[in-house]
Amino acid sequence: MKLGLSLWAAVIITLVGVAFTAPPVVADEDRNEAPDTLGFVEWIVLHDTGVRVKARLDTGAKTSSLHAVNVEPFEKGDEEWVSFELPLDDHKEVEDAEDDNVVLHFEMPVERTVLIKRKGAESQRRYVVNMDFCIAGRVYETQFSLTDRSRFHYAAILGRRFMGDDDVLVSSSESFLAKNECDYQTLDELQAEKDG
């Protein structure tokens, strides 16, 4: 009788364990492709401008960041907006043009603001905007915090929020791995369009 009771207890424990086991993870039907693998530096095209700049893919940053100067908040209707400029000659990564002083002007709604705590320096309030950009032949939208990146090598940083949301892997040892390119305008073409 003791053996029968022990056997029943083992069967019940096994059945309870099976009943409460998590179901197997099933791959999302939309994710039947392997994730894109990009280099730690890639070209991106700012979608509203058609201008191509280098961006560093940074797994240490959560939110993406874009070089911005003269950042000024303003009200538009009941919404908070921000105007800012992106001087392309602060980063010598675009094709040479006759006019070295190309500055892109933006006005965009503010998605949120963040307070960045910096070691040994004052905290900094940054505005965050949603922007469309193209990388590796595909258009994405992600949040960019706006900050003066003139002392850094790249005008843009793409953070984990973009990589995770859009299923991107990063090679830490190689750059420019994108298999597809985005359409873009050279600075000379942009200037001719502006003058014409």
Helix segment count?
A: 3
CATH superfamily: Acid Proteases
Which whole number gives the mean pLDDT?
A: 81
Shape: globular
Number of strands: 12
**Which consecutive residue ranges, at least 5 long each, have pLDDT under 50?**
7-28
| Sheet of most strands | 6 strands, mixed, barrel
Radius of gyration: 24 Å
* CATH class annotation: Mainly Beta
Strand content: 35-45%
CA(first)-CA(last) distance: 98 Å
CATH architecture annotation name: Beta Barrel
| Whole-number total of structural domains | 1
Strand order of the largest sheet: 2-3-11-4-10-9
Structure commentary:
This protein is α+β, with helices and mostly antiparallel strands and 196 residues long. The protein has a single domain, classed as Cathepsin D, subunit A, domain 1. 17% of the residues lie in helices and 40% in strands. The protein has helices spanning 2-19, 160-165, 187-195, and strands at residues 36-39, 41-46, 51-57, 64-67, 69-76, 79-87, 103-109, 112-116, 124-135, 138-147, 156-158, 168-171. A six-stranded mixed β-barrel has the order 2-3-11-4-10-9. The chain has a three-stranded antiparallel sheet with strand order 5-6-7, with no helix packed on it. β8 and β9 (124-135) form a beta hairpin. The longest helix is centred in the N-terminal third of the chain and has 18 residues, at 2-19. It is globular. It starts with a helix and ends with a helix. Residues 7-28 have low confidence and may be disordered.
